[in-house]
Amino acid sequence: xxxxxxxxxxxxxxxxxxxxxxxxxxxxxxIVFMSIExxxxxxxxxxxxxxxxxxxxxxxxxxxxxxxxxxxxxAVGLAIIIAIFRNKLTVNIDxxxxxxx
Amino acid sequence: MTLEVILFFVFGFVAAVTAVIMITRSNAVIxxxxxxxxxxxxxxxxxxxxxxxxxxxxxxxxxxxxxVLFLFVLMLLRPENEKKFLELNxxxxxxxxxxxxxxxxxxxxxxxxxxxxQNISKDLTKSIEAGTIESIGRELFTNxxxxxxxxxxxxxAATIGALVLAKKKFD
Amino acid sequence: xxxxxYLTVVLPLVGFLINGIFGSRIKNExxxxxxxxxxxxxxxxxxxxxxxxxxxxxVDQRQKIVTLFSWLTVGNLxxxxxxxxDQLSIIMAMIVTGVGFLIHVYSIGYMHxxxxxxxxxxxxxxxxxxxxxxxxxxxxxLLFLGWEGVGLCSYLxxxxxxxxKFEKSTTSDAAKKAFVVNRxxxxxFLLGMFLIYMTFGSLxxxxxxxxxxxxxxxxxxxxxxxxxxFIGATGKSAQIPLFVWLPDAMAGPTPVSALIHAATxxxxxxxxxxxxxxxxxSAPDILMVVAIIGALTAFFAATIGIVQNDIKKxxxxxxxxxxxxxxxxxxxxxxxxxxxxxxxxxxxxxLLFLGAGSVIHAMHHEQDIQKYGGLKKHMPRTYLTFLIAAxxxxxxxxxxxxxxxDEILWYSYANGNLFFWILGVGTAMMTAFYMFxxxxxxxEGTSRFGHDKHPHESPAVMTIPLIVLAVLAAVGGFxxxxxxxxxxxxxQFHNFLAPLFKDADRKLxxxxxxxxxxxxxxxxxxxxxxxxxxxxxxxxxxxxxSIAVNTTQKFRGLYNLLWNKYFVDExxxxxxxxxxxxxxRSFLWKIxxxxxxxxxxxxxxxxxxxxxxxxxxxxxxxxxxxxxxxxLGIVAAFFWIILSL
Lengths: 101, 171, 645
What we know:
The structure holds 3 protein chains of 3 kinds.
Chain A (H helix, E strand, L loop, with lengths): L4 H21 L3 H26 L3 H31 L13
Helix pairs in contact in A: 1-2, 2-3
Chain B lengths: L2 H22 L3 H21 L3 H26 L12 H25 L9 H8 L1 H9 L3 H22 L5
Chain C lengths: L6 H16 L6 H28 L7 E11 L2 E9 L1 H24 L6 H20 L3 H19 L6 E2 L2 E2 H30 L4 H10 L4 H18 L8 H4 L5 H10 L4 H8 L1 H5 L2 H24 L3 H21 L3 H28 L17 H15 L5 H15 L3 H26 L16 H16 L7 H4 L5 H17 L7 H28 L1 H10 L1 H8 L4 H49 L6 H22 L1
Antiparallel strand pairs in C: 1-2, 3-4
C-alpha cells in the first residue's frame, strides 16, 4: 500500500473538525485560541502535503508565512487576553459578552 | 508495509488523538502540553513528506516559541478549571459539535469525490528537492521577497501591539 | 392718491411687524404707540386723499383696481391681491382708518402701564391690516382672507388679558366662544363662495356682479347663495341666531370693544351684504329674511339692554341692536341708508365705548353702573362727549344718529310694511331709554361709589379722541340730509353711493312713493317717542328711583327673562355645546382617540417591540455564538460547492 495525498487530507480535515469543535464548545479563551492554532496547523498539513506530492516548494513557503502570521497572532491575541483578564478577572468568553449593547 | 506507511500511521494517530485530548481536557495546562505533542507529531508527518525545513521550523516556532508563550500566559493568569463538557448549555454544545462534524463530513466527501491522487503521482526526487532549505530560500528571497518583508513588518507590528496591549498603564 | 391705496393695507402690516417683532425690546411706550398710531394715521390720510380724488372725477370712472400680484391661479380660477377703490370701499376705508386712528391714540392712554403694551398695538395694527383687506378686496377670496383675519384679531384681542377672570369663566373662554361662533358663520360664507364660483365661474367682484345681471340664473340659486352669505354675515355681525358672542366679547380691553366690536369688524357683515347687493336683490325672499332677522335682532337686543347693569354689556347689546337696524335697512333694499348708519354708528358707538372706557379707567375697572353716579363733576369732558353720543344714538336732531336712523325707519315704512316700522320705532324708544338710563346712572345723581375711589378726568391723549369723535357724531349726519330738507341736491350720501346699487335697485324697484307729509310726520313721531323715552328715563332714574325697583318686583318673571338674556346662552349650551362636549368626552376621547388612534399608534410600536425583543436574542454578545453562525455559513457554502460538483 502507498500513502496517497488523500490520507493527509483526511487527517487534516479531522484535525480541522477537532479545532472547530474546540472553538465552538470551550469556555476558556486560551483553549479556544489553541484550537485556532490547531486549525491553522491542519491547513499547514494540507499545504505541505500538496507541496510534497507536486514537488513544488511554494506550498511550504506559504506554511512559512502562516507560521509568521500565527506567531504574530499569538502574541497580540495573548496580550488582548491579558488585558481583558485585568479588567474582568476572567478568561471565560461567555462572560465576556460586551459585544452586545 | 514500508517505513513510510508505518510512520504515517504512527504520527497520524498521535496527531489525531492528541488533538482530541487537547480540546477535551478541563485543565488548560494539560491541553497546552498535548498541543505541543500534536505539533511534534505534525513535524514528524512533515518529515515523511520530505519537508525538512518546515518540520524543523514547526518544532522551533510552534512547539518552542508559541506554545511556551501560551504556557507562560496560562501560568500567569491561572484560569480556573472548566466544568465538565455537558454541564453548561448542553444543547448548544451538542448542536455545535454536530455542525463541526458536518463540516468534516463535507470536506471528506469533497476529497473522495475529487480524488486528487488520480492526477498527482509522487516524484521522490522532486519532492525531496522541494523540501530543502535551498529551494525554499531561493523562492523566498527572489519571487517572494516583498511578502517576506511584509511578514517582517507584521512581526514588528505584533511585537509593538502586544507590548502596548499587555503593559500596565503608566499614570 | 388712488394708486397708493395699497399702502393703507401695507402700512398697518408694517406697523404690526415692527411692533410684533421688536415690540418686546422697545421699552418706550410712547414710541410703540407712535408707530402703531402713526401707520394708521398715514393710512387715513391716503384714504382721505383717495376719497377727494374719487369725488373730483366723473361718476363712471370712479372705480379703480390696483393689482399687486397674482395670488392663486388654478385652472380658470384666478385670484389676485387686487384692491379696488370705489365709492363704497373708500367710505369704509375712511371709517376704519379714521376711527381706528382715534382709537389707537386713545389706547396709548388707556393701556398705559400694561405689561403687554406692545402686543396690544401689534394686534390692533394686524386687525386694521385684515380689515382693510376685507374692505378693499376686489374678489371674494381676498375678502375672505380679511374676513378670517379680523376674526383672528378679534379672538386675540378679546383674550388679550388671558389671565383675568371674566364673569363665570376666563377671558380666553370668551375669546374661544367668539371664535367658534364666528366659524359657524364663516362656514356659511365659504359655502356661499363655492356656490358663487359654481354658478358664475369666477370670484372676482366685477365679473360675478356683471354675470349676476347677464346670466340666466334661477331665483333658487340666488336664494341659496344669498342665504349662505347671510349666515356668514350673521356670524360676523352678531345677528340672531349667532349674536351670543358679542356680549362676551366685552372681556377684551375697552378700546378693542370700541374698534372691533362696535365700529368696524361687526359691520363687515353689513358691508358684505351691501357689496353683494345684486345677489341679494335677485333673491327677494332672502332679502325679506334679512329684514326680519335684522328687525328682530334690533328689538330683542334692545329689550335685553334695558336691564343690564354692566356698562359695557349695555353698550354691547346696543351694538347688536344697531347692527340689526343696519340689516333691516339692507333687507328693505336701502343699501346706502344701511351704510350711512354704519358710518354714523361708527362715530357715536366708538365714542360711547371710549367714554365708557374713560369712566372705567377712572373708576379702577369697576363696570357696574349701580356703583357709579354723579361723575359729571369729576370728568366733565367725558361727560359732555358721552351725552352727545347718547343723544346721537337716541336719534335727536340734528345729531348724526337722527338722520341715519330716520332714513332706515322711513324706508321700512315706505316699503309698505308697518310691522318693520313699529319694531324699528319700538327699538328706537328702548334705545333712547336704556342709553339715558346708562347716562343718568353714571353721570347724574349722587355718587354711589365708596370713598376709596377718586375718579378723575382722563389724560388728554384719551379725551382728544373723544372730542374729535363727538364732533363727528354731532355733525356726521349732515352729509346725508334727506331730500325733503336739502331740496334739489337730494341726499348727498345716497347719491354718492347710488351708482353701486343701481343694478340692485333696478331689480327691486318696488318703492311706493309717499308724500313728504308722511315722511315728516313719521320723523316727528319717532323724535317725539325718543324724547319721551328720554324724559321717562330721567323721571324713573333721577326723580323717582323707587319706580324702577317696584316695576322690577312687579314683573319679576319678565325681568329675569331679560336679565338672563332670554336664556339663549343656556339654550345653546343645552342644545349644542353640551351634546358635543358629551360626545367628545365619551366617544371621541375615550374610544376614538384613546382606543382606536392610540391603539393603532401604540400597537404598531408594540409589534415592532415584540419582533425586536425576539430578534435581539440573536445578539448574545458571546463571540462563540457568532463563530457558530459563521460555521453554519461555511456549511452552507460547502453545500453549495458540493451541489455544483
